[in-house]
Amino acid sequence: MRWQDREGSNNIEDRRGSSGGGGGKSLSIIGIIVLLVGAYYGVDLSGLVGGNAALTQQTQTQQTKSAPSQQEQELAKLSSVVLKETENVWGAYFQKAGAKYKNPTMVFYSSATSTPCGTGQASAGPFYCPVDNKLYIDLSFYDTMKNQLGAEGDAAFAYVIAHEVGHHVQTLLGTIQKVHQAQSQVSQKESNALSVKLELQADCYAGVWGYYAQKDGLFEAGDIEEAYNAAESVGDDTLQERAQGYSVPHTFTHGSSANRKQWLQRGLQTGDINQCNTFATS
């Protein structure tokens, strides 16, 4: 990706060194499945990732800030640039539709941090909280992608960020609120199916961003393939099969590898948010 000389976002909140300290740890495949259950769309994280808010606050006061590694510094810069690029694309998109895009804030943290959606920890991976319109990310997730998921590269990491921004777009459009309301009135199986549609739409929105970023010269040869590989690597079937040797479709919350790539690809090829209506498909 050609990101090094591009402008970064001002909407960054850096909590590293004051949010549990010490840096995050790579996830196991089981841990990754846990994070995919609900962390991405703003449910209460405290029950998912464990931890206690009071304990987390106590830990925060006991940690000293350590200097970030060279890789972490680069990832912070990359993330800031990608966020800025999403601000540019979605700002223009909303303006064209006669609306105003509200920029989200990206929060960098280490190990754990408190959020209005519950206690966020590195073991929950990157997630978006619709209550405060913030994206939370422990930059050590890059190593998890590389070492646990086989999804390496700047474009793969950019896809993760763009996916979370996709949830922000859904929040601004009222989609997440409607889905959460519907989920409270249906069975677990039906709730999971709604979650899949929500996540696949966020993949498609990530692709819409990628369509314009590609036109703007952000991507180089091989970057699109990196993004596709990242989308496939976090498919529910792939993760479940790696963890237990088989998949259980009715428990999917994010979609199969094939579907995640399909919807990311649709956004990348069309650049049209109207082509991302996953709720109109079976």
- The chain-level structural class is alpha/beta
The neighbouring-strand order within the major sheet is: 1-2-6-5
- The total count of helices amounts to 11
In total, the number of strands is 6
* Poorly predicted regions: 19-27, 29-64
- The separation of the N and C termini measures 35 Å
Q: What is the number of independent domains? A: 1
Largest sheet: 4 strands, mixed
What spatial form do the alpha-carbon principal axes imply? Answer: globular
- Could you state the oligomeric state of the chains shown? single chain
Percent of sequence in beta strands: 5-15%
Order of helices and strands: EHHHHEEEEEHHHHHHH
Q: What is the averaged pLDDT score?
A: 84
Provide the fold topology.
Elements: E1 12-14, H1 29-38, H2 46-49, H3 53-62, H4 70-96, E2 105-108, E3 112-115, E4 118-121, E5 127-129, E6 134-137, H5 141-149, H6 154-173, H7 175-183, H8 188-215, H9 223-233, H10 236-244, H11 257-270
Parallel strand pairs: 1-2, 2-6
Antiparallel strand pairs: 3-4, 5-6
Helix pairs in contact: 1-10, 4-6, 6-8, 6-9, 7-8, 8-11, 9-11
Transmembrane segments: 26-43
Region (Disordered): 1-23
Keywords: Membrane, Transmembrane, Transmembrane helix
What does this structure look like?
The protein is α/β, with parallel strands linked by helices. Helices cover 54% and strands 8% of the residues. A four-stranded mixed sheet has the order 1-2-6-5, covered by helices on one side. Strand 3 and strand 4 form a beta hairpin. Helix 4 (70-96) runs parallel beside helix 6 (154-173), helix 6 (154-173) crosses helix 9 and helix 9 (223-233) runs antiparallel to helix 11. This is Putative neutral zinc metallopeptidase.
